[in-house]
């Protein structure tokens, strides 16, 4: 099935994750644009510079906060003529869930998403992936460098070391320590910025994708995230791709995951989305 734009949904908003910039979406942007979609891949606020510039001066990264980032994307989405498909990777997948909770989007896809508040158990590989940040409380106020070794464990574990290093050089930037701490310790904060109303039934359909070889967000985390939505009557789906790592932007075979996400989102946006169906012309 090759999805194409329709009268109800013709725009896709892609949200990058921690350690990344919009450059990480370059293959997905080209693939979706070739199918006729308008594809937007905006940076987190203040992170519009290229990878090389952000490595040189990561000050804008250190300033990131969950609510500020979500507010930024809300403004972009509300300015569009009709609700888009919203897709986010890693922390972008967390932001996607927060945006749907605000009543935005025609359909949402969290691609190996960071956990919302309520996921109680984080496996060793998740903690190992974020150890460069979590090892010091002072990192809450810093942008933490992501070394080639860090990248190879967290993103490039399905790549040769040479290919992993090349991907690190092209895509990786330091991480926002404050934002990472917000998610990691959300269950201790009654006003956590990552809290989602998992009971609401009037949101857009949501798909959560997991990778069987993902060290950052293993399937157990994504599955637990999906289970939190059980009280809702809105569509929530979960799908695992065996053997896939966290590097969905460029790992060989990424096209399979990209196409699955798009096909699902287009079908749901056209048939199940309250934000789109309610705007359809009356007959």
UniProtKB/TrEMBL annotation:
Domain of life: Bacteria
InterPro entries assigned: AB_hydrolase_1, AB_hydrolase_fold, Carboxylesterase_BioH
Alphabetically ordered keywords of this record: Hydrolase
Gene Ontology molecular function, alphabetical: hydrolase activity
Record keyword Hydrolase present: yes
Residues in AB hydrolase-1 domain copies: 12-250
PANTHER family: HYDROLASE ALPHA/BETA FOLD FAMILY, PEROXISOMAL MEMBRANE PROTEIN LPX1
Record protein name field: Alpha/beta hydrolase
């Amino acid at each position: 099935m090759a999805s194409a734009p329709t009268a109800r949904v013709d725009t896709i908003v892609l949200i990058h994750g921690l350690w990344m910039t919009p450059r990480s979406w370059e293959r997905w942007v080209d693939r979706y644009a070739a199918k006729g979609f308008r594809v937007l891949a905006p940076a987190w606020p203040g992170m519009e510079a290229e990878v090389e510039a952000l490595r040189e001066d990561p000050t804008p990264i250190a300033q990131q906060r969950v609510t500020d980032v979500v507010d930024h994307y809300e403004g972009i989405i509300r300015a569009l003529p009709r609700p888009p498909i919203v897709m986010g990777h890693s922390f972008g997948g967390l932001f996607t869930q927060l945006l749907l909770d605000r009543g935005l989007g025609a359909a949402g896809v969290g691609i190996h998403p960071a956990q919302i508040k309520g996921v109680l158990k984080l496996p060793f590989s998740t903690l190992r992936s974020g150890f460069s940040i979590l090892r010091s409380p002072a990192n809450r106020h810093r942008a933490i460098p992501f070394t080639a070794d860090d990248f190879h464990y967290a993103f490039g574990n399905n790549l040769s070391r040479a290919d992993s290093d090349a991907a690190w050089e092209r895509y990786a930037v330091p991480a926002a320590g404050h934002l990472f701490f917000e998610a990691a310790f959300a269950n201790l904060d009654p006003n956590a910025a990552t809290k989602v109303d998992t009971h609401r039934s009037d949101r857009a359909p949501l798909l959560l994708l997991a990778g069987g070889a993902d060290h950052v967000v293993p399937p157990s985390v994504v599955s637990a995230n999906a289970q939190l939505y059980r009280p809702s009557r809105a569509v929530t789906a979960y799908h695992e791709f065996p053997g896939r790592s966290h590097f969905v932007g460029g790992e060989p075979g990424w096209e399979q995951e990209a196409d699955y996400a798009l096909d699902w989102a287009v079908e749901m946006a056209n048939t199940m989305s309250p934000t789109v169906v309610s705007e359809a012309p009356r007959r």
